[in-house]
Design a protein that fits this description.
Radius of gyration of chain B: 23 Å
Largest sheet of chain A: 4 strands, mixed
CATH architecture of the largest domain in chain B: 3-Layer(aba) Sandwich
Helix content of chain A: 55-70%
Oligomer: heterodimer
CATH topology of the largest domain in chain B: Rossmann fold
Helix content of chain B: 25-40%
CATH class of the largest domain in chain B: Alpha Beta
Number of helices of chain B: 11
Largest interface: A-B, 30 and 34 residues
Strand content of chain B: 25-35%
Number of helices of chain A: 13
Order of helices and strands of chain B: EEEHEHEHEHHEHEHEEHEHEEHEH
Distance between the termini of chain A: 33 Å
Largest sheet of chain B: 6 strands, mixed
CATH superfamily of the largest domain in chain B: P-loop containing nucleotide triphosphate hydrolases
Structural class of chain B: alpha/beta
Strand content of chain A: 5-15%
Structural class of chain A: alpha/beta
Radius of gyration of chain A: 29 Å
Number of strands of chain A: 5
Strand order of the largest sheet of chain A: 3-2-4-5
Chain lengths: 351, 310
Amino acid sequence: MIERRPRSALAELTLARFRLFFREPSALFWTFGFPVVLAVALGVAFRNRPPEPAHVAVADAAGAEPALARRTTAALQSDRVKVTEEDADSARTDLRVGKVTLVVVPGDPRRYRYDETRPEARLARLLVDDRLQRAEGRRDATRVVDERVTEPGARYIDFLIPGLLGMTLMSSSMWGIGYLIVELRAKKLVKRMLATPMQKGDFLLSFVVMRAVFVLIEVPVLVAFGWLAFGVRVEGSLMLVFAVSLLGALAFAGLGLLVASRAQNTQTVSGLMNLVMMPMFVGSGVFFSSSNFPDAAQPFLHALPLTALNDALRAVMNQGAGASTIARSLIVLGLCGVVSFVAALRLFRWR
Amino acid sequence: MSDAASALRCRALVKRYDGGVVAVDGLDLDVAVGECFGLLGPNGAGKTTTVEILEGLLDPTAGEVEVLGMRWATDERALRERLGVSLQETHLPDRLSVGEILTLFRSFFARGKSLDDVLRAVSLEEKKSAWYSKLSGGQKQRLAVACALVGDPELLFLDEPTTGLDPQSRLQLWDLIEGFKKGGGTVVITTHYMEEAERLCDRVGVVDHGKLIALGTPRDLIASLGGQEVIEVTLVEGTLDEPAVARLPGVHGVRRVAGGFALAADPLHVALPALVDHLRGAGHILERLSTRHATLEDVFVALTGRLLRD
């Protein structure tokens, strides 16, 4: 019985990609589970804590009356200063190994012993002196009121979630396309399909369609997780977050295709993939801002597609930026996608 | 254009790889519509390279190829719709089911068979929803052929379809190929199994070092040895007087084989008594004497002095 084909080749190819993906538990984990696990781990490690108390030792000065040291200790003890009373030798040791940042030697004059290059030591010096002087009767010249601020979008987790989103989009696009294509090539499936009337464009397009659909799953998973678990809010338009993610995923899909265009086996492509992605994991501001790198490296870092993607996602999610603000990043991503797609098509090893 | 009955035609085909290795060295082939043509030869003879050139998957260094009256350079799309191809080794996706794989391949063709028809043709109806990874070797190979059949091809290429299969799976695959032939299809098959070629092929071409060294029906090729039967002789000691044996009535040739001699004989009832008389006269003591039908293996050995599976 001869019948007309029921579904288009592109639809069938795309369907096959999804089936294969969802039947591979490890792929599922690395795409959806891993970013969430990473967000939890880092969110817990870098959660905002109340300010650390200053660690201070009060040393019994030789020949001074013991009551003085005890009074000093009592005056200092508070939730912002943690004080221990020690003899001079052990105080010196504790300072050297960093158990305390400041040693107070009561008397007249009162001595503060600390390392001036350590900010927390200078802070402890100011705190301790302020408390002791007040206890001894000093009065403020002007009344002050402290207004404590925790700005939304300024916590580490607010910085981290867009970075993780960018990283996830990069690695799932690159691995999802690059590795899969080389695996198909190594198994001679690319050649086998080429022996049918299948259009090469349909074959490549099925990967792109798959990536585009996955963006619709990956982005909500991480954004919703960040919001529910850590209260990370999307200040800008959610649609723009999706649009930026889609552009990023397609740019990395192109890069993945390029990396996979010649490789004959999966070891080669894994090596190439790591070579391409490692500089971006480190330099593109996933876990810490790329501005920590020297100025000379900045033009290079800003040309990396993951830097562009992370910058754009952070601008929209943390600062509520609109499309025009992130135009530069969008152009970098667009260029990366187009150039790598064209290059990949020219280099692609079909047989 | 060649005449309408030609399914495949190639002239002076040469394939030289980058390293300078010549895999195909001036091959001429003609396959008629409805014919089952076998390319025979040992591993590395150039069979797969030849077939992949004919399939349009490899560009020849020189020579002409015409498939179904068309050329790869100009008519690739139209040709692909009418061909079925099974590569020497294809690893289909482990986690797709038989039905899903066939539906996928079916979608590449504008016209073709229904899923159920193809499943029935390869006897995999029961396995429709089984993953590829769960299939036996024979089932995998039948599925590979099924993928070549989904487009209802006029010309089917099979590259060593039964290599590594158990005897029962081979028989099933042979039935399947014969079924396709009965439907009027043309088959080009490569193999290094002589019995496969003898059973399936209308004509065979024997390939060695990229050259065609014999061409004809299996019967003709075997007949070219001079005898349909082979007498194998092993002596306890000493050696045969080969020229004298070759002159015996009914004996058409003598060659040395491992452990003794093989004689092409026809008719056997004439050759055998003459041989026994000769051996007795020469005072030889027989360790072993046996007879069998000549096969394409003997043709290959006679032509090259080597065994096919060497």
